[in-house]
Design a protein that fits this description.
Blueprint: H1 3-32, H2 38-49, H3 53-76, H4 84-122, H5 125-131, H6 136-173, H7 179-189, H8 192-218, H9 223-253
């Protein structure tokens, strides 16, 4: 196969994958507006939301702390150290909070969903659902996507608070900021739209990362190796879509 054929085959394969992904997303969105299994939704809210809280909180804490240190170093070159609280708060709430939380869930949740549904595909449990006249889309996909849309904005709110707290702790212990001044500057710089835009991003990211986990798990092939590939592809595709969606939404919100 010459290079032109290889390139053409790669492009066609990419287009087929994008088409299949779009059709699956359309089916999932249609299913979201119908009846679903409330018990499955509650279980996924617990798995995706509550069990992800520790990793999201720790990541946000260290991100806020590191951000404060780096901004202080850069600001010191222009005698602008006093802007550290403002930039940390704004950066966490508008950008880093939603993105960091989504990437953590992409690694933890997308791979887990893909592995779980892929194992069900490999063991023919999804075929058994069809036999029992249970729609796999409503039983497996809808509860996970709804849980992602609901839970990620809540996790982002927590991540925002913890991230700003991380910057605050570094500011008052290492950078010698006055605690009252730091808190006032952080509060004054934020507007309601800063928080709302971050929560909108979080809802979109929650939809994307759960959708990728469901899609790759639902179409897993090849037994155990196929399940592993599905988990890997789910994490990679979710991360890429999160970054792409973040750029688009940021361009719209600015």
């Amino acid at each position: 196969m010459n290079p032109v054929q290889a390139l053409g085959r790669g492009v066609l394969s990419l287009l087929r994958s994008l088409g299949a992904m779009t059709l699956f997303a359309g089916s999932a969105i249609r299913a979201l507006f119908g009846p679903f299994y409330a018990g499955q939704l509650g279980l996924q809210l617990l798995r995706i939301g509550f069990l992800s809280l520790p990793v999201v909180g720790l990541t946000a804490l260290f991100t806020g702390a590191a951000l404060a240190l780096n901004i202080y170093v850069g600001g010191a070159r222009f005698n602008a150290e006093s802007f550290v609280p403002n930039i940390v708060a704004l950066g966490i709430v508008r950008e880093l909070g939603p993105v960091i939380a989504a990437l953590m869930l992409a690694g933890r949740v997308s791979s887990g969903i893909a592995a779980e549904i892929g194992a069900m595909r490999a063991t023919e449990q999804i075929d058994a659902l069809h036999t029992l006249t249970i729609d796999p889309m409503r039983y497996l996909v809808v509860p996970r996507i709804l849980a992602g849309i609901i839970v990620l904005p809540l996790l982002v709110l927590v991540a925002n608070v913890i991230g700003v707290l991380g910057g605050f702790l570094v500011g008052i212990t290492t950078l010698e900021f006055d605690p009252t001044v730091y808190i006032r500057n952080s509060w004054d710089i934020l507007e309601s739209w800063d928080v709302i835009s971050g929560l909108i991003k979080a809802g979109v990211f929650g939809f994307l990362l759960t959708l990728m986990g469901c899609y790759h798990g639902y179409h897993a092939e090849g037994g155990a190796q196929g399940v592993g590939r599905a988990a890997t592809h789910a994490v990679v595709s979710a991360a890429m879509l999160i970054f792409a969606a973040n750029f688009i939404l940021t361009s719209v919100f600015v």
